[in-house]
Amino acid sequence: MDLAVIERSVALIGAIVVGVFASIALKEDWHAKGLDNNTTKLLLGLMAFGCIMVFFAAIGVIGPKG
Amino acid sequence: MAVATPTTTPIPRPVLDHIHPEPTGFIRKYIFSIDHKIIAYQYFITAGLFFVIAGLLAEMIRIDLLKHTGVLTPNVYNQVYSVHGSMMVWLVIIPFVSGAFGNFVMPLQIGARDVAFPWLNLAAFWMFPPAGLILLASFAFGAPDAGWTEYPPISLQAPFGTSMWCIAIFLIGISSTLTGINFLVTIFKMRAPGMTFTRMPLFVWASAATAGLNMVATTALAAALLALFLERQFGVPFYNPTKGGSPILWQHMFWFYSHPAVYIMILPAFGIISEVLPTFSRKPIFGYKMIAFSSVAIALLGFMVWAHHMFTSGMAPWLQLPFMIITMLIAIPTGIKIFSWMATLWGGSIEFSPACLFALGFLITFTLGGVTGFFLAAVPADLHEHGTYFVVGHIHYVLYGGSVFGIYAGLYYWWPKMTGRMMNERLGQWHAWVTFVAFNCTFLPMHWLGLLGMPRRVAMYDVEFEFWNQVVSICSFFLAASTLMIMGNMLWSFKNGKKAGPNPWGARTLEWMISSPPPYYNFKKVPAVLAAPYDFGNPLPYIGLDAEPGAVEATPQSTTGLVHAH
Amino acid sequence: MAHQVAKTKVSLGPGFWLVTAGILIASAIMSYFVYASGWPIGLPQIAEPAPEIDSLFKFLGAVGGTIFNIVTGYIIYFAIVFRRKKSDPPDAIGVQVHDNPVLEFWWTVIPTVLVVILAIFSTVIWSSLQNTAGDVLTMEAIGHQYYFSFRYPKLANPVNNEMHVPVNVPVTLHVTSAEPGEPPVDHGFWVPEVRLKADMVPGLINTLRFTPTQIGGPYRIICTEFCGALHGTMRATFYIDSQKDFDKWFAKQGGTGGAASGGAAGASSGIALAGGTAAAGATLFAAKCSACHATDAFSDKKVGPGLGKIFADPGHPKLVDSSAPTPDDAALIMKKGFTGDIGQMPDATTNQISDGDIANLVAYLVSLSKK
Amino acid sequence: MTTAAVEHGHGPGDEHDHDDGHEEVIYRETTDMRLLGFVLFLCSDVVLFSAFIFAYLYLRGTVDEWPPILNGHQLPRLDLPFAEFNSIVLFGSGVTMHHALENWKHGKVGRFDFFMGFTIVLGVMFLGGQGYEYSHAAIGGWSGSIFGASFFTLTGMHGFHVFCGVVYLAILWWQTKQKHYDQTHYFGLTAGTLYWHFVDVIWVALFFLFYIF
Prior knowledge:
The structure holds 4 protein chains of 4 kinds. Chain A has helices at residues 2-28, 35-58. By secondary structure, chain A is mainly α.
């Protein structure tokens, strides 16, 4: 039970940190051209979205109820 | 465009000049060669071998159906037709059209020295023979018997052979996925300077569309096969209704690949026809852009129609309508192709070489196959036809009368380029005629058998169908015999076929600008392309092409670019 | 131009229009025969919607045949007229024409129009197959290795390998495969003379709707999905009887008053329903039944159907003699359990309800239907 | 520098004498082709996962309630909090990998090593977490129900990809130690990074589909 609380809080903090770093990385090579950079941008963006999802899951906004 | 003028300045492409040294030693040269031509020859030989085996299996089917009670025991019969179908689709036609023709012709036509990833090419080929052997070996363990579609749940109860079938097809799937990736990169990145997309030969367009399909669709099949294998071997419930799975799920996943697979099999044949017809009617292909784009359109639409194989399987009725309508839409780009080919014949100077005869036969049989396809697309009609011999007739019209006729045309067309020797024209023409007649006598009656109530995949059938089945069987023996004619022709050309020279047909695409068989590096110097191919009136649109002496002079004097070396 | 020997004809070719006329006339004649004859199927049309489906076949045949004639005709014509003659020099070339926008426009538009017409026609026929009108006789066909069995309402046991339906009675046929205990395999149900087919997939119920119009038989019922070694031998016979003959046959099969649609075990439940009280039933229903059954219309399915108006519910499938289910039918189902096209329900022992409970529940259901 | 270019520009045992510029173009163009090939490979891999995801959603659609009922009991949901934790481990590794590549581009080999090692550690941690999850997921095992089938197959395939990724990154790291790459010739590292990001993104989908949805 309290293990779950620990996991949640770690995930919460982690989500913020990782999300921020991911967005920064995204912002940095936003103007970079080339197939590799564009693919990276797409993937990083999706990963940032993943962080947002984890964030909301951790604060219990989304996820199965009950 | 009347005169060939450079509309784009050819950029130097050092990577095109990059060459890996010719291997010495038999193994590296002929067994594990990375030369796309050698690999193409390997595909030709292997797929040809499987073609013979699968053909013999087909004759076993027809022998069984000589009597309405069946000749073989039902178990054997079911295994025979299932392996026949699987082999013809995955081990014969697909390797032939993309592995063999794609590998040999496509790099030559875009002026490349090899494909983008030669080692990948080598790896892709060497997944192919083992797959075939595994499938054949499955006979020892109880071969798959539920048809080439292997619908669960019955395929879950079949003996171990079906798991071997999964493995074999999975290998083939990986092989064609890798080939697809390889070809796409090759076509995108390795075209000769100045060869814009609209200057690519139409076979290259077809290869590109096919490669795309291979790359995307085949992994879906891999997933379906993996799930089937896991369920068979470890009881993981995906398809078994008694454990909560869904048999229909397999049908969705299987057909999501296997309908595009139909286009994987037919698009390269389209490409071959689009090369053969201009050459032998000495005319530019009619409506180049329409033909090229229709290939892409067909490839894209091909992904949205898979469920038309499942109209009777039990899906939401309203879903039937979109699938029916999109399926019917495919008739439009296909029709455009057919009409453009007809218009290419018009006003030509048509030379009835075997390749041309097969191309003409293709137009007729494939049109019929398309018409019956329309019968099957219309849901209410399909409710009567589904699972009958009408379907069997239809698929043989599109796969035999389509793909195989295209393969024959391509073989006669590129044989001189591949071997450096001519085949026997007369014998080839006989082959074309015999094949055409025997083919139609074999597969046309199947449509009526089906409509009158003969279901497919049966070892025995109602007695009233016996007469027509015997007709079909006898004609199929002639069809099989006709295959011997081209084999004999090949042997003949090896023994006493006369030297072909670089360009025996007076064709205008790049592969004919170099000696036959092509040298290891294909092009001594990679040429620059100034205009579209097929403009027979104009000088050849290639510069900097330092080919073998006497091959071609691209001078205004030579009207066709045709010069008889020797 | 450099190529002195190029064919420079402006005409479409000798006798082009003659050939065109020939192709069109041939197509017209062919289409006429398609409609005049039984082409392409020629089997009797023993039930709705066979005639509609055949009309689609004929239309497709006429259109497709015409397209085929046009393609084949012109190809042969071009091949003959534009062949390379012995006299032509080796580097003779054809007319150097690349495209013709007008032509290409038309041969894109005309097929598109044709496709649209065909799609509309097919859709119209398709929708006629979807109609749920009538729904008088609701029955089941079940595929086994290697025979068919047919469940009739009010018939205790399924009938094997013989399907009788009364003429002019709309039939709703639910097909499935593999009852519990059998190895699950696909089968197919096809009566060519009816032109309808449905796969019999284990764990899935597909539905065919048709109205027999011609007394006759036997016709073939054919399995059209591979179902094992003897798939080819899997047949049953199909008869369309007059209502009287059908009733006679039905009686011979042991059809009597009793169970509800879908065919649970026959006869009477033998439970004294008089003593039941609706109030006790209500509490029992909440405890035992409400998990699977709603108390509103029959069509409102939870796991089982809604039972609110079961004794006065238009949504409830009618029986062969179009009589509604009786309280005793309900009691019987609670006692014996139920297996049928609308689902399954365990029997009284599994549900742990006594005969008295059943009596109370029935009383409750009756009270619901009265509301 | 030249070693790198030769490694990449040419097949093994290729003997030309090239001037440097020519060599650079060769390298650029081959890298270009390999990149496209690699991205196409990722696309077909996406289809593989999509097919299984389709299977999962299809099967899920065939039952009235989710998780499904096995032997009369409804199966439990999966352990969401732990999954959140584990996801962050994987996403974090994606960020560290990104920084590893950036540092390599700027020639900061020391920091590259740090982040590379960090990435691999996180990857291994994620795999361990999956192992923990597998041992605790009480959903009737792989072959118990459609839930177990789709969950263990999909996450198993993803785990296999992660495992391959860890090995791949380790090899790349070793290659950097072999002076295989330099500041301008590092296609292998680009490919590794793309692959690792790809694995992360697949997990985003799986996390949503199995834990949230």
